[in-house]
Protein 1
Amino acid sequence: MEKRATSLFEIIRCPICSGESLSESGSQIAYDMREAIRKKINDGYTDEEIISELKNSYGNSIITIPPSTYILWFIPLTTLLVGCFLIRNVWIRKVATNELKREEFLCKWNKISVAKKNDLEKKRGKALEAKKELKMAFLTEEQINNSSREGKEEKEAHGEIETEHPGYLGSQDSYYVGNIKGIGRIYQQTFVDTYSRVAFAKLYTERTAITAADLLNDRVIPFFDEQKVSLLRILTDRGTEYCGRPENHAYQLYLGVENIDHSRTKAVHKLMAYVKGSTELCKMNATILSSERKFTPLWQNFS
């Protein structure tokens, strides 16, 4: 009974005190109200009936309701969840921006590489034609025939291969381009048809059998299929991206699927193959290497 009275004292205000409950106030009216509440409890009144009578006499403000503290528990949790959501959005946006910059760089670099290669091919072709015309002007027909015969015999003596038509033999090599901040190492896979000197190149962030096969699958084979020409043989060095066990090596498996023969040569710096036209691959890589300083401002713009 006294427990009930005490709990009621804590929620009922003293009418004349400033914000004090009956249990806290020492005024006479608070004392009288405590005694009246005890008497009503003895008379069998319920807590609701006592509170109702006090509200009718003094108004609703006579009852003090303890403030709810549940919201104080939810504020830190809500703040944490909102912070995690914002951090996640910022991270996703940053990753997407980096991927977009990387794709834009690779696209621009491919376009620039093709343009530079075309310019070099034109200049080299003009220089060779001028040199040939100059040489032919001072040679007789008999000397020209003897020179052609001697050249062919010399090639056969050194084991050179004379390509007979487009697709007869292709030459493939990998080339380390450089390192880009935020991306890492950049490698270039290059393919040259040794007869027509048509070249393909593509940039990658790694030098593996998969990237070597991807150049053929993405650029080379579709081009030859479009021209209705079969690629019969490919010449590479003995790098791990080109050589391995046929049953578990991606490049060897792809050549087997496409029914392409594979010839290998020793790697001496770059692919120095004794094949008519295959040295174009070496020359193109050497030109890129010798022009590295000229491309420095371009790299700085992309990095």
Note: Residues 70-137 form the longest helix (68 residues).
Protein 2
Amino acid sequence: MHQSYTENGTADHPVSLLPSMKVHELQGKNSAMSGSLLVSTFVGLLINQVKSSKAAQGLVGLKNLGNTCFMNSILQCLSNTHSLRDYCLHNSHRRDLNRTNTALMEEFAKLIQTMWTSSSSDAVSPSEFKTQIQRYAPRFVGYNQQDAQEFLRFLLDGLHNEVNRVTVRPRATTEDFDHLSDDEKGKKMWSKYLEREDSKIVDLFVGQLKSSLTCTECGYCSTVFDPFWDLSLPISKKGYGEVSLMDCMRLFTKEDVLDGDEKPTCYRCKARRKCTKKFTIQKFPKILVLHLKRFSEARVRSSKLSTFVNFPMKDLDLREFASDRSSSAVYNLYAVSNHSGTTMGGHYTAYCCNPDSGEWYTFNDSRVTPMSSSQVRSSDAYVLFYERSGL
């Protein structure tokens, strides 16, 4: 883990005490004031004005509390998620809070509000928020480096639970939808999911996967529909050093053969049969989170893939992977959580597109700097945040 980058807020320019004075007033107050001091005066005022406007636009860093760059990176990506930001800024979350646990959502909203309304551009400390996320998920207690994607999953789950519109979940029942068409079955399964899990977080981040299992003996195809909060994409390995995001999506959705010990039981044959399994996307979420599987799945992470994955900034068209090809599935990138370094010592940063200005910025703990959109693609990209176009 690299040392955290901290940026001490510079002391206000002494002249900022006189923000409303005009040039002639200053000259009248002290005719002996030198020209150079006048220049420095107004440069100071200008800097303070820029700092204030910068702060008002959400361009505020987060202090590293000790190996918490993974948390800061994800928080900046979520802060630049337009609909989630507005949900917090407008206090809309308050009408959805349940009666028991509310502390995590309240601290998250408070942090987002501070990042977007602070009159100072000094970095903000997320310590109160950290206290609440580690109460919800004790694995984040302490100051060890953690995985950003795992943190995102726990955080969204925690926020969802506190603003779930369903206060009393119905008893789980098993219903047979096999007589319905796949499209109708998918809609029924989605409705059943919403009977238990229904929140602004679900509205934004959750989609639905369709898994099709086909028996190679009798041809019977069974379908299962599951909600997803993100897609973990394997990185396709090619002879050269670059792959495309579409290559990774095709690898994720490619047809797999289940044979040998993996043979499932065919519903029609009533026996274990060699089958093929394939994923398609039944329902596309408003916010699509794509996790590039750079780390080996061993309990102790022994390796990291630094393959350059070429992902589109605009007009990512995923209709190829839709269950229904007429689905609206075009996305634009707005944030990336990056991991640099190795499995032994790494550092997380975020690249985010400001939802108001459309400009890209690097968020490196306390430090926030403008960047060119041409720099966003890199071999450090780890979690990609896309918004469906037309929203």
Note: The longest strand covers residues 330-341.
